[in-house]
Give the backbone structure.
Amino acid sequence: MANKKRRKQRRLNKGNLIILMVIAIAILGLIGAGTAYLLNLGQPSFLKSGNARSAEVVKDKTSDVQIAVYYPKSESNAGWQSLAESQAQALLDQLKAETADFNKAKKPLLVKADYQLILTQERYASVLYTIQKNDGGVIQESAKTYLVDLQSNQLIDPASVFDQDALEWIAARFRADMKAQEATREEAYGMPFIQASAANSGNYTSFSLEEGVLHFFFPAGTMLSQDIRWDMPVSELGEHFLLDVGQGTLDVNKVRIPPRVIDPNKPMVCLTFDDGPHPVNTPEILNILKNYDSAATFFMQGFRVERYPETTLNIINSGSEAASHSFNHPKLTKLKDDDLNYQLNRTTELVQELTDWQYTIRLFRPPYGAVNDKVKAASAYPLVMWNIDTLDWKTRDPEQTHANVMNEVKDGDIILMHDIHAETVEAVQRIVPDLIAQGYQLVTVDEMLEAKGLTANNGQRVFSSRSIKD
Ligand code: ZN
């Protein structure tokens, strides 16, 4: 009996050894695969936090989508802990809503929101979420940020931390940087970007703060067609960044000219405004220009510079050009030497004094365009004329002023208008976007001369980029 059994076993071992091994391997394989599958359902390694020791998590799991949102753990500050948790829960809800329509093909969609926490001055917690959506190995990444005051454990509204000066500086720097970079250059001159990047608090709300640097996040389709990450030191904003993060204050310089980038290969025109500055109209024109990432040249009368110093500084600090249109508008061709020199130079001296010698006028426009050899010889500036006269002072009709520009405009033109008339502001409101839509850059006369590599000597008359005459 025993022998028989042993023989049987021996026969089994010998005869079916190969089959047995195949089955065993198959079973092991199945167990292995099953285990991996079960593990995968439990916690795919993709969904693990990089903050292993200090993260809490809120999760959601369906057969199609698994989401894990981590948040910072704080044992010492219950208020901050519950705020962090509610922020994570809100993000989880948002991600659930975003992925509700996802139907898995083979693998479920894995979504992880992991955080980076940066503390500043032991008071401000800047939380940056990196959100990764893993669809069968194809990973999409986006970012989300929030800022907390740890003294009150309140969220800080990101639209409330910049004053208007800060926003204008941010917009100018951002636009200049996007124009300067090859990858973003073309789009940065287009109207959609110009509108999206205007100096409004709502346009600059997605940022984290780390060691004195603001990291801005602009998802594809908000500013440009591509995802943009852009850095700016908070020290550039000084006290205009309204949280004290040790950034200090700006120098008390009266002049702070925002950066501008001009493309010499793109068409450009110069809007020029005579006879101001005007305390109401000029700032309105400057706001239009800033909204559209543009600048103009203002040929000012000296007596009005004396009367409206703030408006004069506003021109310079908007990135536009301050230039001279004499002290009080006489016909220069009728003046004797002393009077002529006074009219040619007094406005420049006033602007130098006003700006503590940080800004110098480089261009002069003679009243009525009246010039003779004596004026040319006495002038320490190129004499800027114009080649499109809008006649805005005569018609006082925004429609007609707009038409006079749009019907004639070409690359390199210098367009004459007057910022002392309210109707001209109305015209500018339409002219500026219409010129940009036609592909023009709106630049100062000085910027155009430089961009086009032109030299205009003192006393020479500049009518346009195509016409400079003795
Ligand atoms: Zn004039």
Remarks:
- The mean pLDDT is 92.
